Amino acid sequence: MASITSRIAEGFRRSRNARLFGLVSPGALWLLVFFTVPLLFMLLISFVEKGRAGGVKVPLQATAESYLQFFNACSSEFSGPDCNPLLYINIFANSARIALIVTALCLALGYPLAYFISRQSVRSRNILLLLVMVPFWTNFLVRTYALKQVLAESGLFNTFLLDLRLVNQPLELLFNETGVLLGLVYGYLPFAVLPLYASIEKFDFSLMEAAADLGANNRRAFWRIMLPMTLPGVVAALVLVFVPVVGAFVTPDIMSGGKVEMIGTLIARQFGSSRNWPFGSAMSFIMMLLVLVGVVYYLRSGSKEERAL
Amino acid sequence: MGDFAVEMRDVVKEFPGASRGTDAVLAVDHVTLQIRDGEFFSLLGPSGCGKTTSLRMIAGFEMPSSGEVLIHNRSMGRTPPFQRPINTVFQSYALFPHMTVGQNVGFGLEMKKVPRDEINTRVGEALELVRLPGMRDRTPKQLSGGQQQRIALARALINRPEVLLLDEPLGALDLKLRKEMQLELKQLQEQVGITFIYVTHDQEEALTMSDRIAVMERGKALQIGSPLEIYEEPNSRFVADFIGETNFVSGKVLAINGSHAEFEADGLKMVASVEPGVTKGAQATLAVRPEKVRLTREQPGDTPNAYPVEVVEIVYVGTDTRYRVRLAPTVSLSVRQQNTVPVGMPALQGPSGLRMWVSWQPDSARVLPS
């Protein structure tokens, strides 16, 4: 009697496992083939010597020189007498700096916008949110090139400013860091607005009235009540903007014409004209690790408040 | 012109129509009232009568479209809430979820930059006042509804406002707790001595707690007076109907003698007190409360208002017995008698039912405008 029921239970369990496996396997297979395998591939490449004309040296020679080269730019045989060993570290730091500025700008612009949308009637809100999402329906490259046209010396924006005599000379908004910042904020602002809106929309505005009733002016009510309670949205927006931007290479390349070097453009070049795959792979992993550690640390330090909410 | 805690002078509040094509809404329609220092004053009325909007204008969450709001003779103008000497207890309590009880209660003092030690002491006192001394480190989520309500009260009172505003604070509590809190709030108000302005739609609550009540309907303050005045001398049909139970008899005013009127309905003559403004010959309504109507077997001799009736319905409700009696084809009344002795039910006899007499004193009834 017991053996029959236990066999039935086993069969049921196995078939449920089988069903789960069936559901998960296409996605898991996809990730395995197109994500995990190439990543392992890259890991391998990062630990071998580079080939003379690109690719890797065959037969494979194990070495950690690519990793060392990141931390000491003068360790390769091609460095000149006045090379700066911190060159690549500086580039990474610069990328982080630019990413922080872009993130700060996206938060500063995105929060008021999300707030404004949340205060409209339901119908207006839906329309406005749709407008925020329209960029996702268009091609990112096309949008970036379009922005470039608008910001050019003889482009729409400068013509507008000159005609209204707001400036005497056209502003240099391209082929410099300003152009990169503008391009990145333009591209990533929707990524900030949506999680911010999700958080603000859930906020109970009667709490702001209570704060005012207790003597808080608008500024203090915002910092003490609204911001702490919408912090999950802020954290989400921060991560969704910072992580892609720190590794961006298409936008900086287009907006600065290659003049502004970020870690993304540097890595991309290793797989192109610089023909140093191991170095590119090594930098990718170093960057991935640093960003991962940074984000996890940041999330953990914020999550105490989130848990209290 | 006296020294009032709060005054509303001809205040109007208009809200624009919700969507294109709809008219503006007149939420508050020329309301004038004076609230005295140390008074427990209620704004009473059904939903949409303008009581909450009036409270919000006193608090500063809304600005009047016209008219003035004064607090201790200072016109508030467009002063924002954080600059007014008032505090509010909200219907939803609005406790800050990301702060502890202690931080919530001390928030107002923090905003006034009171030193930390003093804040701690006063928070302790405030929690004692609402009888929740050990709750300082809890979060609002961990409190029951009744406890949250008292914390909201503590958070408001700790600031020693000139006036405390309460917006239906007991609405979310169950009946028993609500009754307890009504008494507690009244005692607290007497203890602390601050002027309370209380918004409610529950007329029993208002009658229990208030020194004076303003009965509001559709933006207007219909009558302002003590619970006794409102109950015994309502000035309009709405007030008589909204407060407690009332019988209404439609008829005509035959004559007016000073403060009394001769009234006629369906052939019956009645004498009653009369609301000023009702004129001879006018169509009017006579209002008499069920408990003021006396039911007897024989004709009483002590009042001109005595009529033979047919008892149509008898309902026993424990403390009282209620009767439905017919005086004339178009005149029926509800009568309520307290069961002061154990009741033996007189049976409804035969096709014509029980015959008795009803009577009431002239001052127990009131003739109101129709």
Describe this entry's structure for a reader:
The complex is a heterodimer of chains A (309) and B (370). Chain A has helices at residues 2-46, 65-71, 87-118, 122-137, 140-151, 156-163, 177-201, 206-213, 218-229, 231-246, 250-256, 263-270, 277-308. Chain A is mainly α. In chain A, helix 10 packs antiparallel against helix 13. The model of chain A is unreliable at 305-309 (pLDDT under 50). Chain B has helices at 51-59, 101-111, 116-129, 145-157, 175-192, 203-209, 227-232, 237-242; strands at 6-15, 25-35, 40-44, 66-71, 74-75, 86-89, 163-167, 195-200, 212-217, 220-225, 247-257, 260-265, 268-274, 283-288, 294-296, 305-316, 320-328, 331-338, 354-360, 365-369. In chain B, strand 4 and strand 5 (74-75) form a beta hairpin. By secondary structure, chain B is of the alpha+beta class. Chain B is elongated, with a radius of gyration of 25 Å. Chain B has a 6-stranded mixed beta sheet, with helices on both faces. Chain B has a 5-stranded mixed β-barrel with strand order 11-12-13-20-14. Chains A and B meet through helix 8 and helix 9 of A and strand 6 and helix 2 of B.
Please give the structural blueprint:
The complex is a heterodimer of chains A (309) and B (370).
Chain A: H1 2-46, H2 65-71, H3 87-118, H4 122-137, H5 140-151, H6 156-163, H7 177-201, H8 206-213, H9 218-229, H10 231-246, H11 250-256, H12 263-270, H13 277-308
Helix pairs in contact in A: 1-13, 2-13, 3-7, 3-10, 4-7, 5-7, 5-11, 7-10, 7-11, 8-9, 10-13, 12-13
Chain B: E1 6-15, E2 25-35, E3 40-44, H1 51-59, E4 66-71, E5 74-75, E6 86-89, H2 101-111, H3 116-129, H4 145-157, E7 163-167, H5 175-192, E8 195-200, H6 203-209, E9 212-217, E10 220-225, H7 227-232, H8 237-242, E11 247-257, E12 260-265, E13 268-274, E14 283-288, E15 294-296, E16 305-316, E17 320-328, E18 331-338, E19 354-360, E20 365-369
Parallel strand pairs in B: 3-8, 3-9, 6-7, 7-8, 13-20
Antiparallel strand pairs in B: 1-2, 1-4, 4-5, 9-10, 11-12, 11-14, 12-13, 14-20, 15-19, 16-17, 16-19, 17-18
